[in-house]
Amino acid sequence: MQEKEARKENLKKLQELGYEPHPYSFAAEDPVWKIVENFRGEKDEDRLQKVRVKTAGRILTLRRMGRVTFFHISDGRAKLQVFLREDQLGKEKYRHFKYFNTGDWVGVEGVLFRTRTGELTVLASDFTLLAKALLPLPEKWHGLQDVEVRFRKRYLDLIVNKRSREIFEKRAKIIQAVRKFFLSRDFVEVETPMMHPVLGGAAAKPFVTHHNALDMDLYLRIAPELYLKRLVVGGMERVFEIGRNFRNEGLSAQHNPEFTMLEFYWAYRDYSFLMDLTQELFQEIAEGVWGDLRGTYQGRVLDFSSPWRRIKFMDSLAEALGVEKERLWDEAWVIKRAEEEFPEDGGAPPATYGKALDFLFDTHIKEGLWDPTFVMDHPKVISPLAKEHRQDPRLTERFELIVAGMEVANAFSELTDPGEQLRRFEEQVRRKEEGAEVDLDYIEALSYGLPPTAGEGIGMDRTAMIFTDSPNIREVILFPLLRKK
Predict the structure, then answer these.
(1) How far, in Å, CA of 95 to CA of 88, rounded?
(2) Which of 127, 146, 274, 375 has the fewest CB neighbours in a 10 Å radius?
(3) Higher per-residue pLDDT: 140 or 309
(4) Angle ∠(93,73,130) on CA atoms, nearest 5
(5) What is the pLDDT of residue 142?
C-alpha cells in the first residue's frame, strides 16, 4: 500500500506541475518497434542524430544517476532506451521526471544516437505523461512465475512476458492464414447464430440461457454445423465460419468451455477429398509458422511432411485391445470393458456404447499418436451426422485428425438423406446421448435437397497450441475460464 500511496502522491505532484493525468491523445508518429526495426543496423552516428522521433510506450526499467536518467519504454513488441539529460531539458523540466515510475506510459520526443555500449537510444528533448501506473509492475518484470496470476491477469502477463505476446501474435497469424486459405478457394465466410432453439451439431452438454421477450430457453451453440449445412441447401456451395462454441463440460489442458472452431462445407466433395485438403491446410500453416514442415512440440519433433498416416477406428482398436474386430460390436462387452479400465477417481464411467468406444480408443490409441494421423471410418453409433460408409453399413465416412495425441479436426461425408437423419436423431434420443434432440427444422431443410457435401470442424485453440509449442489450452486463450477466487 505504501507503494500505491507514493504513486498517487507522484501523480498529484505532476498534476500540480500542469501535466494532464488522463490526456485524450498523443501523436506517437514513430512506434517503438518501427524505430528499432528501421535503425537496428545503422552505425553512422551523424546520420542517426539527424533522425528526430516522437514515440510512446510503457516505462519498464528506470535508472536515475543525478543529472542524467536512463529508462526503457516498450510498446509490447519492442523496447527502446531513452536518455534524459538535465542540461538538455533544463533543470526545471528534468526535475519533473522524478515523479515518474516504472509502469507509467510516457510520450517522448528527441533524436537518436548510440551509447558507448552501442545501444540505440533516444536523446529526449521533451517528455509527457500519458498514463500513471498507480500499481507497480511485478517485481520480476521479466516474467510472472505464478501461472494462476498469468491467466487471471492476462494484461500483466502481456506486459512482462514476451513469450505470451508472441503466442497471441502467432495465433492471430494462424487464423489469418486459415482465412486466406479458404477465401483463395472461393469460399464465402459467414456468421451463423450462437443462440440455438434446438440442440445439434455435436454430442455435448450445452449452456442454457433464457430470452425474456420471447419467453423461451435457448442454448449457446455447441457447433454451427446444422446452420452451415442449411446454407449449402440454400445454394452456397462453399462456406466457412471461424467462431466461438460453448460446451458445459470440464476444464483440462485440452478443454475450455468457450473455444474457437473453424467449420467449413464444400458441396460435391467427400471425406477422402477433405483429408487431402486438410493436409494441405496444415502444411501451409507449418510453412508459415515454422518455415518448414518439421517443427518441435514439447521437445519432440513433429513432422507434417507427406504422406500422413491413415488408420481405421475399429481395426486399430481391436488390435490394441487384442480382440477380434467383431467383439467390438458387442455393446455390453464394450461398456463392461470400459468400466473395468475407467480410473477410480475419474467420476462416472461411460454409460453408453458410443462413449465407451470413445473412451477405449482415446485410452489405447489416440494418446499415442504423435505425427499427424487420420483416424477413419467410425461406427455409425458415434457419428450421427455422417454418411453411411459405402462398403460397410455399420460404419460412416468420417475421419478425425490426431496430432500430438490431440483431436484437432473432425470431418464427414455429410449425411444428406432426411429420413435417415431423422432416424439417427431419434436413435440418439433413445440412447439418451448427451445433447441429443430432434431438430425438425433441419430435417425439413434436408428435405429440400442437400447435394453431396463434405464438412469439417477444426479446433483453432488446439491448432494454436501445436504451432506455439504450448502444453495447455489456457496458454493460447487470452482470457480462459477460471474458478472464482
Answers:
(1) 12
(2) 146
(3) 309
(4) 55
(5) 47
